[in-house]
Amino acid sequence: MSKTMNVAMIGGGFMGKAHAMAYAAMPMFFWPAPALPIRKVVVDMTDELAEDARARFGFDEASSDWRAAVCRDDIDVVDICTPNNVHAEIAIAAANAGKHVICEKPLARTVDEARAMAEAVKSSGVVNMVAFNYRRTPAVALAKKFIDEGRIGQILNFRGTYLQDWSADPDGPLSWRFQKSVAGSGAVGDIGTHVVDLAHHLVGPIAEVNAITKTYVPTRPIQSGGVDKLGASDKNADAPRGKVDVEDEVTSLLNFDNGAVGSLEATRNAWGRNNFITLEIHGTKGSIHFNYERRDELQVMFADDPGDARGFRTIYTGPAHPFGDGLWPIPGIGIGYSETKIVECRDFFQAIVDGTEPTPNFDEALLIERVGDALIRSGQTGAWEKV
Ligand code: NAI
Ligand code: SOE
Fold it and tell me: Is the Cβ atom of 81 under 6 angstroms away from ligand 1?
């Protein structure tokens, strides 16, 4: 029987829901499970919010005191699902208490915070991971496999986009995602970092960037309540307006360490795009195309295909592909966002049990943070900026 591990989860919003679901579902998908996560205590800002999260997400206990929760003797894992402003403080306290830590992305608001977090987990020797879950989409993992096998040859160009439209309406609420003091940055940290993670995973480290950043909506109606309302679904155009002090959009050229070039776009203001994460990578022997809005599919073109079969073909991912052993027994059932979190949860607990480094860990996320910082700097200077 798998060993049980007690989790203290801090933050019971959107990601709290996704992580709680993964704790419950992971052993159902991956059996025998590396460990059985026990939803021990959930922490939120107030006793009322925490109790609501406890009842909804199936935790044993609720608390409004994360400092006490992360130090409890009976806690093995601390899971950080709060907005970005408290990631560093909680992760460092958890590491100092000897707890394994999984932290939502972006790792922190600034490079300095991220570095302090990476140092804390290193000096305490705890297992650490950052929740860049999109790389655990089976089609993305299949792209990685093809690249590692040399099927598209040497990579020449990476084009990555992350387009959404939940902030396109200027009367969408001023959530924490528009406040630098809470979020650290705007589209760069919130969604651009997912593209950087995918670029690092599939191509290698980004060396320098040349970016344009724009803020189109300078003020928004002040949001009531803590959990992010994410857009116009809950808008109150008559509320007093507060300042947006982060970028709405980033567009950048990229140079990679290995000589590949590329581009990155991230915006939450692109009407009609929902979770439009696209990757198109071409190499000396072929190309790969992925669109998260059709996340079960990977399009590939191999240059050595016979002339009469030249062109992109669509592979529909299923049991034969990465993570297929645990997901669904036949192709065509498909996966959702939650499955990426279930795989992430399995990999984190597997690393704890095996004593290995999960990926991406805090060191890798520090590098992503440095790319984000270079994107912001380049947006200000208009020049190429080194990572
Ligand atoms: P949210 O606003 O839905 O939920 C945040 C929760 O944390 C709220 O319940 C809030 O009351 C609570 N909270 C805030 N400060 C706290 C504190 N000091 N102590 C305890 N609880 C506190 O936010 P969401 O969307 O869940 O985002 C959380 C984190 O997850 C962010 O870092 C975000 O960037 C990341 N995220 C990652 C996603 C992914 O695809 N990997 C998707 C969405 C968010
Ligand atoms: C909002 O842009 C958001 O929830 C991001 O914070 C997540 O990281 C992304 O995966 C989904 O969209």
Answer: yes
**Contact assessment for residue 39 and residue 21, using Cβ atoms and an 8 Å cutoff:** no
* Residue 150 backbone zone (phi > 0: left; psi -120 to 50: alpha; other: beta): left
What's the token pair of residue 68?
């006490």
Q: Strand, coil or helix: what is 290?
A: strand
Q: How long, in residues, is the chain?
A: 387
Atom of ligand 2 nearest to the CA of 190: 6
Cα gap 358→237, rounded to integer Å:
44
Phi/psi for 374 (5° steps) reads -65, -35
CA nearest ligand 2 atom 9, residue: 191
The tokens for 264 are 């990155």
Any ligand 2 atom below 6 A from CB of 341? no
Widest distance between CA atoms in the chain = 66
CA gap 41, 51 in Å, rounded: 10
Is the CB of 131 within 6 Å of ligand 2? no
Question: Do residues 323 and 344 lie in contact, with contact meaning Cβ atoms separated by under 8 Å?
Answer: no
Q: Are 346 and 29 in contact (CB under 8 A)?
A: yes
**pLDDT tens per residue, the chain (387 residues)?**
789 999 999 999 999 999 999 999 999 999 999 999 999 999 999 999 999 999 999 999 999 999 999 999 999 999 999 999 999 999 999 999 999 999 999 999 999 999 999 999 999 999 999 999 999 999 999 999 999 999 999 999 999 999 999 999 999 999 999 999 999 999 999 999 999 999 999 999 999 999 999 999 999 999 876 678 777 666 788 899 999 999 999 999 999 999 999 999 999 999 999 999 999 999 999 999 999 999 999 999 999 999 999 999 999 999 999 999 999 999 899 999 999 999 999 999 999 999 999 999 999 999 999 999 999 999 999 999 999
Q: What is the pTM of this model?
A: 0.98
Q: Separation of 177 CA from ligand 1 center, angstroms?
A: 10
Q: What is the DSSP string of 138-190?
A: HHHHHHHHHHHTTTT-SEEEEEEEEE--TT-STTS-B-GGG-HHHHSSSHIII
Tell me if 11 CB under 6 Å of ligand 1.
Answer: yes
**Separation of alpha carbons 290 and 72, rounded Å:** 43
366 three-class SS: helix
